[in-house]
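Structure (tokenized):
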């Protein structure tokens, strides 16, 4: 039996605002990973525009005593993942925590949450940037956004469409800090896309994953991405696949929020959690009721290499879910109808399971935007179908 992972995340608690620990703990937990927390500060709300000030309680003095108690208890972690840290002193404490509390081979994951849109967050300065760059140099994986990467490397920030040469130079400078892998967030080579670069600093191997750009600026999406990426990584998913899944999760979170202008302070990531749960938690059920429910589901296997375009996907779904006696449309509404049943394969409303093999091959075939729409249809139980989705990469 594989040993379950235990992760420590160190960042602030913004009590209102859907960022930092208030998203990291539920998201990583939803990925099936035990999530322990070490708050660096408590804020009434996050510091973004829209709120009229905030309260701040610095917890720096509490951190050493907490860590000493953990050492006495023999508590160790498979990974330490850091987000928003409030001071240079906290950065130094995090380095100590990584040295003292990580298990052998444990991962150091740093999200240098300190800037966005070309500017540092309130309260940060260049000495803080320097110390954060040094922390990134000690990490296994870092997850800076474009602004943070530019501050740490001295590159000029641009809000315009980037060139691949620009991104490669930025990645090269980030690699020089010392991390093993860089996940660079928020890049785009076209105005209608947004994505991430996954860079192996030793081999120079570079991968991109892009999604559609949603015309909404939202607080906390970087934290949602970092938490989903970390949770997927701890489940054994490789960095490229974890980044792609995290990007899908963020897009779904924004889409769940975009029709609610009153929800300006964050994204409704809670409504996107089923996407993570169904794509990552694939262990056998423990209870008799859950096992019986799983056994009753009719299973269909879709192989990502069995089609070469969207039309081919629809034809393959016709083949899987119908007996061919009734003509069907080739669009998302028709796909939803097929999932409900009644086309000769399973009864209307009968619970089913779709096992999607070679999923990443389908991403390349269909594109990230179209694939996410299809997955959202499959997982949307409110549309009178009960379809469980099992992803096999």
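Design, position by position:
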């Amino acid at each position: 039996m594989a040993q379950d992972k235990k992760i420590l995340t160190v960042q602030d608690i913004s009590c209102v605002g859907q960022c930092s620990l208030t998203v990291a703990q539920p998201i990583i937990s939803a990925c099936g990973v035990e999530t322990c927390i070490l708050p660096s500060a408590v804020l009434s709300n996050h510091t973004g525009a829209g709120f009229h000030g905030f309260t701040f309680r610095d917890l720096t003095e509490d951190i050493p005593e907490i860590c000493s108690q953990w050492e006495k208890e023999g508590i160790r972690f498979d990974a330490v993942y850091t987000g928003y840290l409030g001071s240079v002193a906290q950065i130094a404490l995090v380095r100590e925590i990584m040295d003292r509390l990580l298990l052998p081979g444990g991962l150091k994951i740093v999200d240098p949450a300190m800037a966005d849109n070309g500017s540092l967050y309130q309260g940060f300065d260049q000495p803080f940037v320097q110390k954060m760059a040094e922390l990134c140099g000690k990490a296994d994986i870092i997850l800076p956004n474009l602004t943070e990467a530019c501050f740490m490397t001295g590159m000029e920030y641009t809000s315009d469409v980037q060139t691949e040469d620009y991104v490669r130079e930025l990645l090269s400078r980030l690699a020089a800090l010392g991390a093993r892998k860089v996940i660079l967030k928020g890049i785009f080579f076209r105005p209608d896309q947004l994505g991430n670069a996954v860079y192996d600093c030793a081999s120079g191997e570079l991968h991109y994953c892009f999604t559609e750009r949603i015309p909404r600026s939202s607080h906390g999406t970087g934290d949602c991405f970092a938490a989903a990426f970390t949770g997927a990584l701890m489940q054994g998913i490789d960095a490229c696949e974890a980044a792609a899944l995290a990007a899908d999760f963020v897009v779904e979170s924004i889409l769940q929020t975009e029709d609610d202008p009153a929800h300006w302070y964050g994204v409704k990531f809670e409504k996107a959690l089923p996407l993570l749960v169904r794509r990552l938690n694939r262990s056998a059920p423990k209870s008799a009721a859950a096992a019986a429910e799983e056994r009753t589901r009719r299973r269909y296997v879709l192989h990502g290499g069995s089609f070469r375009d969207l039309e081919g996907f629809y034809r393959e779904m016709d083949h899987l879910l119908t007996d061919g006696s009734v003509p069907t449309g080739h669009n998302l509404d028709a796909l939803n109808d097929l999932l409900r049943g009644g086309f000769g394969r399973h009864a209307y409303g009968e619970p089913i399971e779709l096992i999607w093999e070679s999923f990443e091959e389908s991403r390349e075939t269909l594109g990230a935007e179209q694939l996410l729409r299809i997955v959202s249809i499959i997982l949307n139980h409110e549309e009178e179908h009960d379809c469980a989705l099992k992803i096999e990469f």
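Reviewer-requested clarification: The mean pLDDT is 91. Residues 42 and 377 are 38 Å apart (CA to CA).
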